[in-house]
Design a protein that fits this description.
The chain is an alpha/beta fold. 33% of the residues lie in helices and 18% in strands. The chain has a domain of 146 residues: Rossmann fold, CATH 3.40.50. The protein binds zinc ion.
Length: 238
């Protein structure tokens, strides 16, 4: 059986599949994976991305944080690709129960997915650190320097920075769906970022599918390993 037929067979049998995705899901939407490209930033910035995206750096160098964040983490014009769209269709068809993502671009919701668990938060949500007032992405894009609330407080993106812990409720919901899944599709992630990647260890269902260009620690447990662009693979489903 071809790779494509095997994939279609596994997905058509699914009743509560979960998709677990990472940066590779959005690269075909034009959003680069900053972890695989840090050489790119060395010339323009004084610190590595992992430093600039840390909680400590946000607190101590807020203006510099926002300079990097606006330039490299926000892609307001990015559109969902075939992977996002097909996942939304599979959810509507009742095959997929949840999308768990490490991405912060909210492209799954833009494609129409409803049950999306964003382990690392979203650039779309922002809040005032003093009064809690919520702001959309435009507030961050349109304000120069450090974005401020009407109360004067500093606005922080609702994204999990290095040195911060994941939202417990999001994590426990992700574990619940992964543990109950009959099929787990892991895509666009090398499963190297913890604790997010460790959540796949809760999977106890029938079929594991891995779609990623490089090796992952779960490859040897998978029924099917596909090493191609994920948008291309998803455009062949159904
Ligand atoms: Zn405020």
């Amino acid at each position: 059986m071809s790779e494509r037929d095997t994939l279609n067979g596994l997905i058509s049998s699914a009743k509560r599949a979960v998709f677990f995705g990472g940066a590779g899901v959005s690269t075909e939407s034009g959003i680069p994976d900053f972890r695989s490209a840090d050489g790119l930033y060395n010339a323009a910035y004084e610190y590595p991305p992992e430093t600039m995206l840390s909680h400590g750096f946000f607190m101590s160098n807020t203006e510099e944080f926002y300079k990097f964040y606006r330039a490299k983490m926000i892609y307001a014009d990015a559109r969902p690709n075939a992977c996002h769209s097909k996942l939304a269709a599979l959810e509507r068809a009742g095959a997929i129960s949840a999308v768990v993502t490490q991405n912060i671009d909210s492209l799954h919701q833009k494609a129409g997915s409803e049950n999306v668990l964003e382990l690392h938060g979203s650039v779309e949500r922002n809040f005032c650190m003093s009064c809690g007032k919520k702001y959309g992405l435009n507030k961050i894009i349109e304000s120069g320097g450090v974005p401020r609330c009407v109360c004067g407080g500093i606005i922080k993106p609702d994204v999990v920075l290095y040195g911060e812990t994941l939202d417990e409720e999001v994590v426990s919901r992700a574990i619940k769906y992964i543990a109950a899944a009959d099929v787990l599709i892991v895509g666009g992630t090398s499963l190297g970022v913890y604790p997010a990647a460790g959540l796949c260890g809760y999977f106890n269902g029938k079929h594991l599918i891995l779609i990623n260009k490089s090796e992952t620690y779960l490859d040897n447990r998978a029924d099917l390993v596909i090493r191609r662009n994920i948008g291309e693979v998803f455009s062949e489903i159904g």
